[in-house]
Amino acid sequence: MSTSTKTAGAGKLSGRTKGYLILLVLLILSWAIFKVITPGNFGAPSQMLQYFQASLMATTGAVGFYFVMVMGMFDFSIGANIILSSVVGCVMADRFGMGYAGFVIGSIICGTIVGLLNGMFYVKLRIPSMIVTTGLALIYESLANYISAGVTQTLPSDMRFFGSIQGSIILSVIAFVVAYVFLNYTKIGTYTYAIGSNEFVAKNMGINVNKYKVLAFMISGAFFGIEAILSISYGSSMVAVTGMSSMSRNFTPTMGCFFGMAFRKYGIPIQAIIIGEFMINIIFYGFIALGAPTAIQDVITGLALLIVITLTTKVDKGEIVK
Amino acid sequence: MVGGLLAGCGSSSSDSSSSSGSSSSTEAASSSATKTETDNSKIKIGVSIWSSTDVLGSQCKLILDAAADALGVEVQYVDQGHVSEKVTASVEQLAAAGCQGIIICNSSDTEMTSAIKTCDDNGVYLAQFFRIISEENNPDIYQAATDSAYYIGAVHENEVENGEKLVQILLDKGDRNIGLIGWEQGDATWLGRWEGYQNGVEAWNEEHPDDQATLSEPQYAGTTSDGGSKAADALMSADPNLDAIIPAGGGGDPLQGAIAAIERAGKVDSIDVVSTDFLSDLGERLENGSMAGESGGHYCDPLFAFMMVYNAIKGNYTDFAGKFENIEFPYLYVSSSDDYADYEKYFVDQLPYTADELVDISNESLEELAATAQSLSIEDAASRAGN
Question: Which of B185, B237, B256 sits opposite A285 (nearest CB)?
């Protein structure tokens, strides 16, 4: 009796538990590989905390971006939003003497406004989100450059609490909880999934699709505002680049978001994004501990991402993959 | 005042203004034989730069704007981010915008093939700043530049020597485990500095077999401060005995990020930092120990490329075909707060050249211009300022 019951029980693991197990195995695996190869300078608890902190910036943005991506839209203005929001926050904190309040509120409101503009233009112009956000990214970059008067914005040294481990964890955890609540316990979360699953059906059900698309961009923008706070606090300065140079900031949050999309079927997208970004950083730091050249690091990181997503994404027979 | 400056330049009426703007190669060859005077207000010089807004780029813009104001010429910037296709496109854009001369900080030598061709086709003078085509690695491109009637030459730093000197500062301070942060793989300046760091460490190890130094594999931070911060965090995490970090460059922002990471880790006293690209608060950092030394002050480099192009447009410098003008620009080194106080006085609080001096420089021959560039130092600026 006991053997058959155990087998049946194991077979009936909930999707959520399965998801957590897979994530845990991947996490331990990525840690263990480097720990075995280079035990002396990798993977101690204090170091793991450091790797985790470094992952929080992109994770926070990715968690917000999930709302947009799950609806089937994309955003090429992520980097420009982060730059503009951190420049605005820094200017409000330093130039206007508004301290932490100006820094935090300025960055988040700026990010939200950028999201609102992205959503509005996307909905009103009725052209693909990638094109809309690419065009707007150029404008945001120029605006940031104008506000900063072409000079690197340096956050005063007494205002870098969110660059510390404690500060970044506090702010990020608040952001993750908010995202989790939005996604699981509000109408926005429900409609986000409904629109993402089948926009046509959602519309016929009476959901104001355009309104919720704009809201998704606003939520995403606000989270990029938080990423901006973490980024400038961590690095201490921000330069308002132009000519689409901000694009390089798009990809790390996007990679984390892919984890969220892959683990959506297990019902733990936010958790997957957090652990996925953490894994990416474990691999990054692991290669540095090994002294591996950057080109090799990039190859292995890219391959790891492809393998993880492939193994966790089940495509039904006959399903069209775009 | 500008009128006076223009008179000093020997410029004249506008009727001879456009001779250099759209002429063909043949016309250029013949016109180069006689000095052509051009109204300065009709001169437009393009600047193809990686960024006119980061720490170093904005300083370059400052001195170029001052020179343009002093000479009464127009200057137009294109930020290309050192992305190859953007570098190539920037030259085409500036030529199409009516620039009679262009100065360029390219990313790799190969981009210069297209840049030289564009300039030859459009009759636009071209000079490089912070860069020089490698005769050894790219002889064909070097030859094309030499053959061109419009390519003037290059103003550049000796990056290998710069790397050697910086790493020596660390070795002299007793640092033996050195972490290296680059900014962009393949960038010519980065490769030069990296070679210098390696040379410095190898030379030390040969001379001191019982006291070996190590240089880490470079970690690439891009040109952002958070990239620099993350790379420094990773290097410190990977080597608990790390006692020095070299953020090699990238406009100053990776350096700021690396310093923030060291401060956050509480290792300001145990990790020395040297770099290139002066920060605005360098004096304070040299005093509190978060910086051990720095080379920089090279933001005046593009000024001399600008003067080369300006004089070519004016018809003062001629006959470029078959020649490659090479001006080596010196780095300034500071390793104490006193050093930096002097630098700040003559290079930060004010530009190292007054408007009148800029006009004087514009009247120099090419040989004199090269000598002026090579003699620039804190002492030189102080003596010209009457101290």
Answer: B237
ipTM of the complex: 0.76
CA distance A111 to chain B (A): 19
Helix, strand, coil shares, percent, chain A, to 5? 80, 0, 20
Q: Using a CB-CB distance cutoff of 8 angstroms, which residues of chain A are in contact with residue B229?
A: 163, 234-236
List C-alpha distances in Å: A248 to A77, B4, B83, B356. Answer: 11, 48, 12, 43
Model confidence at B60: pLDDT above 70: yes
- A142 close contact with B: CB closer than 8 A: no
H-run or E-run covering B244: strand B244-247
Name the pLDDT band for B94 (thresholds 50, 70, 90): very high
Tell me how far apart the terminal alpha carbons of chain A are, to the nearest angstrom: 47
Residue A120 C-alpha, separation from nearest chain B C-alpha, in angstroms? 30
Strand partners, B177: B214
The two three-digit tokens of residue B233, written as one number:
């965090």
CA distance B254 to B226: 7
Q: Which A residues, 1 through 30, put their C-beta within 8 Å of a C-beta on chain B?
A: none
Q: What is the pLDDT of residue B25?
A: 39
Q: Is the pLDDT of residue A148 over 80?
A: yes
Structure token digits, residue B72: 């009464």
Picking from A220, A248, A250, the residue whose alpha carbon sits closest to that of residue A78 is: A250
pLDDT interval class at A68 (50, 70, 90) = very high
DSSP string, B292-349: -EEEE-GGGHHHHHHHHHHHHHHTSS---TT--EEEEEPPEEE-SHHHHHHHIIIIIS
CB contact under 8 A, A157 and B252: no
Distance CA B329, CA B185 (A): 24
pTM exceeds 0.80 for this model: no
Supply the pLDDT for residue A166: 93
Between the CA of residue A122 and those of A12, A154, A224, A225, what are the distances in Å?
43, 33, 18, 20
pLDDT digits (tens, 9 = 90+) for A4-33: 444 445 557 888 999 999 999 999 999 999
Asked if residue B95 has pLDDT above 80, the reply is yes
- Residue B118 CA to residue B99 CA, distance in Å, equals 12
Report strand pairing: B272-276 vs B219-220.
unpaired
Q: Which residues from chain A sit within 8 angstroms of residue B260, using beta carbons?
A: 160, 163, 234-236
Identify the CA nearest to B77 among candidates B55, B93, B100, B66.
B93
